Amino acid sequence: MTLEVSSQVMEAMIAEAAAVYPRECCGILLGEGAVITAILRAENVHGDPVKHFEIDPQALVDAHRAARAGGPQVLGYYHSHPNGLERPSSRDLDMAARDGAVWAIIAAGGVTFWRLGDAGFSALPYVLSHR
User: Fold this and answer.
1) Contact yes or no for 27/41 (Cβ under 8 A)
2) CA distance 112 to 88
3) What are the angstrom distances between the C-alpha of 43 and each of 11, 26, 78, 121, 131?
4) 71-96: b or e for each residue (b if 16 or more CB lie within 10 Å)?
5) Domains and CATH numbers, the chain
6) Carries keyword Acyltransferase (predicted)?
7) For residue range 78-124, what is the model confidence (pLDDT) as tens digits?
8) Burial class (CB in 10 A: 0-12, 13-18, 19+), 106
């Protein structure tokens, strides 16, 4: 599966990661099917936001409620790796639900996309759109 990602979404994620550095940013990927059209920034409520992230639970509840009410669907989640590693960490693997969600990782000025399956994380190809 190839994702389609809005160039504005990519720019927003990269800018957010830079703005909160050296802390990890995090949030929710929104869209429809394989098309990511928006992000919902969320507060990183983890006790050690320099090394870990935890999306504010209320942001998750609100995003899912909005989706049920006809808004954009929750396609997955994003967070930054201030250490520059562009791949999921062992902690990401331990903490992620195996629910088919898309995971975006912002690192080293770029973004990579992943999906977690039985064999671990698999990289997802993507194309940029100008939506």
Assistant:
1) yes
2) 9
3) 19, 7, 12, 24, 26
4) ebbbbbbbbbbbeeeeebbeebeeeb
5) 3-125 (3.40.140.10)
6) no
7) 999 998 889 999 999 888 888 889 999 999 999 999 998 888 899 99
8) buried
